Amino acid sequence: MNFVSIRIITGDVARLVDFYERVTGVQANWATEDFAELRTESGTLAIASIRTLALFAPDSAHPADNRSVIIEFLVNDVDRAHQNLTEFVADVVQKPTTMPWGNRSLLFRDPDNNLVNFFTPVTPTAIQKFAR
After folding, report:
1. pLDDT value for 132
2. Domains of the chain (ranges plus CATH)?
């Protein structure tokens, strides 16, 4: 088994895709107006309209209703990322902070109120864990 992607269901695909393109610097690949993907080396962030749920199970997901998942991105320099995001990220939950497990972490919310964590390993153990 291989983890491939996480999908966010939203009421406004274009707005959310624009946000993630801006914060990640990754250009989205659009399949339809209801579905786009931002692909990275290690996984894909898919963003889909609530209309796509009709193909799965209607009413199985609700846009802007997440209270338990944090979408995480490994970045080279979380402090620099924080500086670059201040102009368009409205809700910073936690400024860059070094966590007990060795990552320096920035926590903010996307336009649908989903939590996003940008982090940089800073301790030897954390750096080794994410070495490529």
Report:
1. 66
2. 1-57 (3.30.720.120), 69-132 (3.10.180.10)
Residue 68 pLDDT exceeds 70? yes
Q: Pull the structure tokens for residue 125.
A: 């153990």
The tokens for 72 are 């995480």
Residues 102/126, Cβ–Cβ less than 8 Å: yes
Q: DSSP per residue over the chain, as a string?
A: ----EEEEEES-HHHHHHHHHHHH-PPPEEEETTEEEEE-SS-EEEEEEGGGGGGT-TTS--TT--SS-EEEEE-S-HHHHHHHHTTT--EEEEEEEE-TTSEEEEEEE-TT--EEEEEEE-SHHHHHHT--
Tens digit of each residue's pLDDT (9 = 90 or more) over 111-123: 999 999 999 999 9
